[in-house]
Amino acid sequence: MTPDTPPPIDVAAARAATAATATMAHFNNAGASLPSDATLEAVIGYLRREAEIGGYRTVGERTDDLQRPRDEAARMIGADPAEIALQTGASEAWWRAFTAVPIGPGTTIVAGRSEFITGAAGLAWARERGAEVVLCPDNEHGEIDLDAAAELIDETVDLVCLTWIPTSGGLVQPAAEIGRLAAEAGAVYLLDACQAAGQKVIDVDELRCDFLTFTSRKYVRGPRGAGALYVRSSRLDELTTPVFVDGYSSEWADPLTITPKPGAARFEFGETSKAAVVGFGNALAEANQLGLDAIEQTVTTQAAALRDGLRSIPGVAVHDRGREQSGIVTFSVEGHEPAAVASHLHTVDVTVSVCPDRQAVWDLRARGLGDVLRASVHYYNDDTDLERLLAGVRAL
Question: DSSP secondary-structure letter at 336?
């Protein structure tokens, strides 16, 4: 093992700590991963304590556990905990970031073509308010074209939006290179890391992003209903006052003045599922302990093996693009609707998902594709899982 090689993940131990892996092969980690038994118990234990002493007393008693996701999220992405706002998920985080940038007539936004429907809706909202929205073309590998981006992203651009890993394929966008262009132009850079967090090494300073959004339920392996928004502290003075605030995110300074809290806390509501927050913190801590470099290597290797296995089956087409690819594998089976294939696989306890073309119109429809099957691997998937999936597809 070379000094630069991360220690391998003990896959058997990860499976032993995740009860459901004993009975099913779960390949919907880009939708919602399986939580570890410890994360599950963290959520249930918190709910149990709320039932015993009440919600408000439990908050006072579990202050450290409720702070933990901010600390662990900051550790995961190389930020300060004060730059982390807890959210209900990635879509809330994205909208809070997007609407914090002054948008109106004269605003120019550059975005990639791999945006999720949330981003597409935000860009449509910006157009309605007079902003100019420019979609950067892709190169021959399906990535955002860096030469075209260098021409488009100049001092007239106010905001750059990019989805690092799209929902509709294994493509990994050159996020750091786009960050460099945005920083040189002085534009705000909003990076959707929803599918990246938990499977890739993340350093917000290397990425040079001003906002980064992600969720608990995907590759982080936390519960649904939690997520995080990173806000670069040096950008705060340039942002608009949040439209939605409450008693946690603002102060009622005098009868006519509401003042947002300092730091990223201004983007956070106090009323969240505290149990989900505690589970999120445990899942983040587990990922950090394993090491994102080791996770990324394991996930990337398993996904490559799955692509090779699928390509060896007659009638199966793999649709992933990009010179760098992630743990998401998209494919189709000739003569079979994606939903029917997914249902067939579920009968043999193999879980995959279907990515509808309506969630990635600029990507899938532009490639002449409709809905596609999506199998997303994680570090607790082993060779037995992969063979179960491949055998299920061969049976068709």
Answer: B
